[in-house]
């Protein structure tokens, strides 16, 4: 069973920084992508950043302020968020897509970590 352990959320002032970490455990044949999504109250879940072996994709709203680092061998991904804005306040979810065997893949979500940016 694949599980995702998230850490690093919290309360920070506008302009501050936070670092979110996610480590996956469990047996996976091959990781396809790892990344972070977020969901603010009353809004749909949206992509923040995701990375594959081909590269990393960022939402326009975080480009230039966030950096996603990965280590697929260690099944981990880290989102460094700088120059945080009040609108970055949301619950952040780690996401992993992986093949469990050569033909079957699945998608996994963490439980979420709260990021609150106060003005």
Structural class of the secondary elements? Answer: mainly beta
Q: Give the topology string: H per helix, E per strand.
A: EEEEEEEEEEE
Radius of gyration over alpha carbons?
A: 14 Å
* Low-confidence regions: none
Rounded to the nearest angstrom, the distance between the terminal CA atoms is 40 Å
Averaged pLDDT:
96
The outline comes out as elongated
Largest sheet: 7 strands, mixed
How many β-strands, per DSSP? 11
Helix amount: under 10%
**Share of β-strand residues:** over 45%
Per DSSP, the total helix count is 0
Quick overview of this protein structure:
By secondary structure, the chain is mostly beta strands. It has strands at residues 3-7, 10-13, 18-25, 30-39, 46-52, 55-58, 66-71, 76-81, 90-99, 105-109, 113-118. Strands 2, 4, 5, 6, 9, 10 and 11 form a seven-stranded mixed beta sheet that branches. A four-stranded antiparallel beta sheet has the order 1-3-8-7, with no helix packed on it.
